[in-house]
Structures are given as C-alpha cells and as structure tokens.
Specification:
The protein is of the alpha/beta class. It has one domain: 3-Layer(aba) Sandwich (Rossmann fold), CATH 3.40.50.1820. It has 16 helices and 8 strands. Keywords: Endoplasmic reticulum, Golgi apparatus, Hydrolase, Membrane, Transmembrane, Transmembrane helix.
Length: about 400
Amino acid sequence: MRASVEEAGALLARSDSAGRRRRSPPPVQTASPRPGSLRRQSSSFREDVGHAASETYLVSRLTFTLLQYLGLGYRWMSQLLSLTIYAIVLMPGFIQVGYYYFFSSQVRRSVVYGDQPRNRLDLYIPEDNSRPCPVVAFVTGGAWIIGYKAWGALLGRRLAERGIIVACIDYRNFPQGTIGDMVHDASQGISFVCNNIASHGGDPNQIYLIGQSAGAHIAACALMEQAVKESGGNPVSWSLTQIKAYFGLSGGYNMHNLVDHFHERGLNRSIFLSIMEGEESLSRYSPEIVAKTSSAETIALLPLVVLMHGTEDYSIPSSSSQTFVDVLQQAGAQARLLLYEGKTHTDIFVQDPLRGGRDPLVEDVLSIIHADDANACQKIALAPTPRRLVFEWQLKLARKISPF
C-alpha cells in the first residue's frame, strides 16, 4: 500500500506539471460591464468543447493509470456500470440542460479564477440584473474523482430564473489533486466570487455558499479552514462576513466514520485514503472534528449552516448531517437540519428538478436567501413553473438503477 501511494504521489506531481505546461490561463477580467451590455468573459464554444475534451481525457487516463497501482474491484466496476446506465436513462433531460449550458446567453462559461488546472468557474446570470443580485457560490460533487462545474447547470438555471447569480466552481479532481488541492481551489474560487462578483451584476454583501455531496465536504472544509485562519489573525483573501449562509447538500463531514462505508459502496479504501492524503489527515479534513476542537472565537465567525439530506441516501447516510449539526449547535454555531423524507442521494439534486414543477431544494434555499425580502418572494411566487424534462418512467427506472 505504501509503495502504491508513493507511486500515486509521483503520478500526481507529473499530472499537475503537465497541466501547467498544456496551457497558461488568460488574465482575469474584472472591469465593470456597461449597463445592458454584459460582456462574456469565456472562451468560444469550440474552445470550451476542446478544453472539456482534453480535461476528460487527462483525468480518465490518470484515473485508470492510478487504478492499475491500487487495484480495480468488482464493486467499483459495478458502480461505474450503474452510473453509465443511469446517465443513459436520463440522457434526454441532460441533453436539454446541456443545450442551455452551451447556447444560453445567460451562461458565461470557464471564467478563470486561478493559475492551476481546472481553476475555472461558470456564471449563470439572471435576465433581469438591473440591480445587484444575490449570489450563490456552488461547489459540485463527484466522489472527489469525477466532479465538474457543468454538473451544476440544472441548479444554476433554476436559481438564475429566480433572480440569483450562480457561480459553479470547478476544482482539481483526484488524481490531478488530493483533498488539500481541492479545498485550496474551492477557497480560491470563493475568493474570486467575493472580490469580483460586483462586476458581473452580483451583490457582494449577499453571497451564499452551497456544496453538494463531495462538494459539500470540500466547501465545509474551506469554510472551517477560513474560520481558523481569521480567528488566528492570519492574512486572508476573502472574509466569512461576506458569506450569509452555507448550504451543505448530502455531504459527509467526519471522514473517519465514512472510510468503511465508502469501501463497501465501491470507493476502494486505498483510493479514498489517497484522496484524503493518508489516514493521518482524516481529522484535518473532517469539518465535524475541526468544529469540535475549535475555539469559541472560531465558531463565532461561521455563518448560518443549513445541512440538507435525503433520509434514503445510501451513498452518504443522513446521520452524517445530523451529527455535524449537533456538534455545531453544541459549539454555539447557528445550524439547521432539513431532512427530505424518502429522498436518495440524487433525488433532490437531479431527479426532482428534471421532473419539473415544485423543486423543494430550490424553494428551501430561496426561503432563506429572501427571508427578509417580501418583494423578491412575491416575484418568485409569480415565476413560471419549471417544465418537465423527462418522463416519470425514466425517473423511476433511474432511481432503481442509480449507484447512489
């Protein structure tokens, strides 16, 4: 195992340097756009497709090379097959979302926020941005291995239709990077949003952070790390005072308790420990444990924490959110738990939005963002109901074969 991890580390170093040699990101544009003329700060469609293809090839090649060192088990293969069939069943809905992602004038793709591979984010801009809009910084999931900023397109579209600017932050996946790199990337993406969103029509005083699955864990790590830095008087590039609330969707927050669970679900123990930089780093990257050991001054800096979880989530049990909320409340933080009865790991993030109609997740997020804005609540109530993107039989079939 030790030799495998060392070889994996060497592979990571080679992949990271290769990523830097392949491209030098363009300079970040922060100039304020003229009213009524929002300048797209993204690459062309062809460049986006080429970038996505090269990233997919690179990550896929590195993943399979790494698995040659660490082993490829039956459970992992069966999970991968289930994921493929799941995606095929829901493909008609995904194609419609993809069309919106690539061709909507409201989407600004691949805005550069840093100098590392995958340091890009997508912006979803409401049609009516005549006045500064609330902002959501979103960190997507993907088991720390297959995360990609475009996975947030469905949520970005739903929130943008209701007057919220959404920034979907990409980050280096494993084996391009380990958890420390992911947390660093997410924090840098949040910093970019806090310091530059005003030039895109956002309100820098109304920023909310959302993470989903692995992204919920990464975002929570970034949040706790920032609180520790600020309470210790260390220099920072963004402030927790700018984050009004953190929403953690279907996340895990104590990595010690999840190693065996993930192994049984198909994420090999050796791979997971490599992602988390070894067993000795599990506590450092467990927000629940960090919160337990943090000072009262650190906890006091945290924004409102809202954890959201389906009761039939088998990928990450809802008890993970329950325990973290309990720890935060005992430490003196503002924390709430929203449980979705009968919902799985992807129901509230994928299947429910594809179904159209009421979207419990979006409604709960908006109820907190607009808690003190009666006019905004009234506009949302009058907004058109999202249409169905797939048939009900597809959703039922997808639920049965979902690896989540």
